[in-house]
Amino acid sequence: MDADPMKSSSLGAGINLLKGTKTAVQLNPGIEDFKIMINDQISNAEISRWILRKFLEKFDSHDYSVQVSHSIEMPISAGFGTSGSGALSLVLALKDALDIDTPNEECYTLAHIADTENKGGLGTVMAEIAGGFEVRVDFGGPGVGKVESIPIDRDFQVIILYFGPFDTKKALSDKSLIDNILKYGQTCTDELLKDPSIERFLELSQWFVNKIEAASNNVKKIIKKMSKNGYICSMPLFGESVFSIQPKKRAAELSRLLQEYGTVIISDISTEGPHIC
């Protein structure tokens, strides 16, 4: 990971979920005070607080009492990019609420730095800006890194078996793990671009997770069982979860197979990227 957050990100690929994050903000001039809610619960939300301070310093010299309400559909700290989606939705909500005349890319840059410096994720923001089925082919934040989009059939859905949270910050502080991610991530990216398909993505994702030795025994067991049933599955980084991507009919079948092991989530794929509703 580069010391300059704008040169930091990750090489790799991913799918953007339609189940995402919506953020609303209320600003009132007065003594600076931040209140942040996640799914109606008060939260310390380090990344959101970081963004509020930096955004207001950069774009508005006034003090505000700010209330932020994040509505997050996916489990938090589970490898589903909620830190990045929270950061992106917050910078766009602030831009809209304060009527700031600046390109979205400048806001995205702030979200990327926030997520990277606070160890919420490395390539999450870049992936979510792209939307859809994306491949990060060059390191860096908005305007520096490069992401390629791969067309995907609307019939596909993402099926997830969720076991529990995973400490992303701890994982991103593990130098050995990060070194392996960088080593094998390049190989996977190169191979996927030779055959940019969902099936190849799943195969490479499974191979990658095995190489970096990030999966728990529980996750490994489910991946192996589903393979015997004809479904290629893998693990999101970083999360105590199992996922696959299948046409809707097969998605329903896989969901039934997974239900006996834990919480199952099915999501359509989002191709739109961050936006104001």
The number of helical runs is 9
| Fold-level CATH name of one domain | Ribosomal Protein S5, domain 2
- Structural class call reads alpha+beta
Number-wise, the strands total: 10
- Proportion of residues in helical segments: 40-55%
Order of helices and strands: EEEEHEHHHEEEHHHHEHE
Sheet of most strands? 4 strands, mixed
Give the C-level CATH assignment of one domain: Alpha Beta
- State the low-pLDDT regions, or none: none
Description:
By secondary structure, the chain is an alpha+beta fold. The protein is 41% helix and 23% strand. The strands form three sheets. The chain has a four-stranded mixed beta sheet with strand order 2-5-3-4, with helices on one face. A three-stranded antiparallel beta sheet has the order 1-6-7, with helices on both faces. Strands 9-8-10 form a three-stranded antiparallel beta sheet. It has a domain at 21-72 and 82-120: Ribosomal Protein S5, domain 2. Helix 1 (46-59) crosses helix 3, helix 3 (104-117) packs antiparallel against helix 4 and helix 6 runs antiparallel to helix 7 (198-212).
Features:
277 residues, alpha+beta, Ribosomal Protein S5, domain 2, four-stranded mixed sheet, three-stranded antiparallel sheet, globular
What does the secondary structure layout of this molecule look like, with pairings?
Layout: E1 12-15, E2 21-29, E3 33-38, E4 41-42, H1 46-59, E5 64-72, H2 82-97, H3 104-117, H4 124-130, E6 133-138, E7 146-150, E8 156-164, H5 168-172, H6 175-194, H7 198-212, H8 217-228, E9 240-247, H9 248-258, E10 263-267
Parallel strand pairs: 3-5
Antiparallel strand pairs: 1-6, 2-5, 3-4, 6-7, 8-9, 8-10
Helix pairs in contact: 1-2, 1-3, 2-3, 2-4, 3-4, 6-7
